Structure of Threonine synthase:
Amino acid sequence: MNHSCREYVLQCLVCDRSYQPHEVSYYCPHCKTEGALDALYDYPTLKREWSRGRLAHDHARGMWRYDRLMPLSSTQFIPPLLVGNTPLYSRPELLGKGSRIKVFIKDESRQPTGSLKDRASALAVAHAMQSGARTIAVASTGNAASALAGMSASLGLRNVIYLPKTAPREKLAQMQGYGAEIVLVDGQYDEAFEQCLDACETHGWYNRTTGINSYMSEGKKTVAFELCEQLNWQVPDLVFVPVGNGCILGSVYKGFFDLLQLGWIERIPRLIGVQAEHSNFMYRAWRSGQPMQQVERIPPTSLASSINVALPRDRLKALRAVTASEGEFICVSDPSIVAAASRLAATTGVFPEAGAASAFAGLLKYAEENPGTAQTAVILITGSGLKDTSIFLSDSARTPSRAQSHSVPAALADEFT
Ligand SMILES: [Zn+2]
């Protein structure tokens, strides 16, 4: 990063108040934790000084090539790990020759710790250290924590992680390997969220948790920038995004929004938020049109642990993403997620975790309900299947054709399921 400091203001999604960065921490002081903030940049100046052509000649590393649209004033603490620059695979016939939906796969399993959350955690550690923080904490279903632990390890930053005790052991192993301090919470993500919030307020730690920390969208949105650049600025018709906490969906929208302000793209694609049937707050809120305070919080029980959330903390940004892009929420069953994960792995070589595979399950459902429509669709594979291998070793993952040629020895399957 060698550009001048970014000018930006923070605007509340609830009350529209604007703040200078030094006036707020992570959320609107007036609306408290309900008040998610947008970082809004000096788009007219950026438009004059920057262009798609100049970007093409910028060889800064990974996500930092878009640093002019990131809320950092210092380059000093950018982690040394390469974050971003993940592949986009064109698989036009993924849905079969009869389908008129051409598919692209954005493979975020290739990030340093294996998930898209590295984009947020890279920004978080740089932002925390720039703010003078010595400890950074997060509540997570697993991926955000692994990402934070990895990024912190690369910079020697102390990190404390609040995690449901049911989190996949692969993710736990990753955090332990990185040397994180781990607090296993007796409950789901929602309990971990509250405990982390309390601890950060008590100890003055930097809180990386999405939904509290409005800056996290600004890291994750870089996936939308990359997508557009990889597609030569031809925006797809549809982007399928897994939804647990809602942060990735909101961030993808923000990325397209920024590019639209610069005039680099002509429209925002329809964003399709995909939820698991047993963790579907956003789907119910969107379908019913009820104020979100009135939508029932149901304990989540999906096997897709990374999107298992009773109350999505980035719900405002997630809902805006779908409504402003004229997209929709789709709900998929656990068996369809398992089937989609196996199909994606076996037919493309991209190995998704269950939460990530929900994006593909959502596309399959959409294609079934919208036959004959010619469209381009991107599925966002947000995390690696190596982070939770249980679904690939279960009986339900073995379709008849796979069982014949790729069956897992029964003893091995029993051992790991
Ligand atoms: Zn506000």
